[in-house]
């Protein structure tokens, strides 16, 4: 994405009659991510009438709105009533994107996630090592020294889609998925790495487990990680893992 | 003020209009499958539209009222009775202390909603009373209602009190009293199983044959359908050529097609994001139609323009506003 077109570096499409998708590109890219994050932050702090919420993804931002509330707000203005709520939301967003160009650098947060690698918590660690012709210690070393970014949260509450893992430890999903993966499990799927916030079925290669809770339904926000966070995995021993668990009680 | 569950029915949960503002944390929206019915049930008993109601599924519950109470029922027809006397739907009902409401097997539709004046006294989780079953969150202890559960009810609104006052003028016999008025029949859905849709993001990437089949042929609702989504079987839907998509947000009514070619209509408890191609998006006003279809039944899809979809939504919202206003005026 090096070519700079003078205008319109995004495409907007409706997602049904109550949401709009702003697409900034086609491939996973940190610059695109920053744009999406910046726009999401701005809209959330400067919501238009009828705005419900927005959801950042790898290459786009989806904005949910209530067309009736938008329409009601238009009724009070001089805007021609031939305009649909969608058109109005689209115009509003175009103006916002134009306005915020080049405004402010975002503050990046780094979250440290302690991980007890291997053993009972990481039943696939040896497979990952074997697949990549590495030793277990090398896999742990590479995984815990990555420069990770949370692109989006989705799939299940608090589940981070993390990019930035080294291809040296990239491993395909297991041929037969497990029926239940314990919460806190740290896994690898292709060049993705992630942490399961709640117990769920899944086919990722499990290399360790974190004692941290990634989904906190009674907290605000309920997700430990947010889109835009940097993540660092820190190896801990089983004793340290137990101590964390003890502390939570 | 409280009600007691005598028999829970097949799947009875507390639902409101869902959790808004938490999808970016991966938290599902949830809420009533048939939001229209849930909103109207609340309006009939003077509640805010977004108050929690009991959503029941296929086989209804049996519920004892431990005080005199104003209630209403909307949605599918479960042949409700109160102390063995046939009880009306789409109408406020003032029930006597000790009376028992029984909802039977669903005759038409799939889900019904019970609202109580004042709403259930339940702690909100992430700003909603909705039960998220997989996450064991919200509603009554994060789960479906069970035998002997006791749900407490908040004090009713001033509109509800007026409805009760007016109702009490009418004959005071039997286990309940219902006023003469009810929701005009034009408000009660009489829908054919046809879902209107606007094009999904990857609509054009599907083969001509698949698009034709999707718009023309019936699809069977699989038994594996639930609050997360309705899985459909019928003609297989294929892309012109296979494509890999990155995960992105989905919505209530998104129709996505996994590689096996069987479409899934995402509903109330859908995941927040998905990575399958989206052939269609069911329009908002038709979401109650699919919520009232049973597994085993058939459904058709019909394509409409985006502007028509929005116009239909605005029209319905205006009608709902009007109804709200009429109830208020009537009670003055």
UniProtKB/TrEMBL annotation, chain B:
**Pfam families given for it?**
CT_A_B
Q: Does the keyword Lyase apply?
A: yes
InterPro entries given for it? CT_A_B, Cyclophilin-like_dom_sf, PxpC
Q: Give the GO molecular function terms.
A: ATP binding; hydrolase activity; lyase activity
The alphabetical list of record keywords is: ATP-binding, Hydrolase, Lyase, Nucleotide-binding
Ranges where the Carboxyltransferase domain occurs: 24-319
- The name on file for this protein is 5-oxoprolinase/urea amidolyase family protein
Record the organism.
Terrilactibacillus tamarindi
